[in-house]
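ligand=5-O-phosphono-beta-D-ribofuranosylamine
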Amino acid sequence: MKNIVILISGGGSNMAAIVKTAQREAWETSVGARIAAVISNKTDAKGLQYAISQGIPTRVLDHKAFASREDFEAALAACIDEFTPSLVVLAGFMRILTPSFVNHFAGRLINIHPSLLPAFPGLHTHERAIAAGCKFAGATVHQVTAELDHGSILAQAVVPVLPTDTADALATRVLTQEHVIYPKAVKTYLLSIK
Ligand code: GRF
């Protein structure tokens, strides 16, 4: 069985989309994969309640309780490793990761970013897309490498930017597509590995 570990910091709607797809498509038998754990760096991450309601093991590692980024990441890596993951999925996990953490999970760490990378890495992507006058925006699933929001592109979705769009309206339109492409990309990845 290939174990998936999902890291969240907030609402966890992408995580929930992956869990729902895994249930609907019976990934345990059809893909040989299961969501082994959901880990959050925030105690109050809403997504934790959903994971618990689905009987998925959860862990919380509050980054503020650690003296340094390195200490937090060492504990996080150990916590993830307990679940022997084939794939670690960042789903709205709002911490910058050091090269040493990324290298530890090299080739089995993916992220979703709410822009059409390589455009607009980093924060405030929707505001920046609107300010730049983009006619299209979207989301990107990519391999995680040491450079923030770089790494090979696994999937993208495109949505229009409407003349009346606020950042929130655009974010909502993009998020709907994230929920489509992320589960698909996770499944494709899992089917591609032994
Ligand atoms: C998504 O827009 C994702 O692309 C970004 O953070 C947001 C997380 O949303 N990295 P959720 O927690 O999955 O609802």
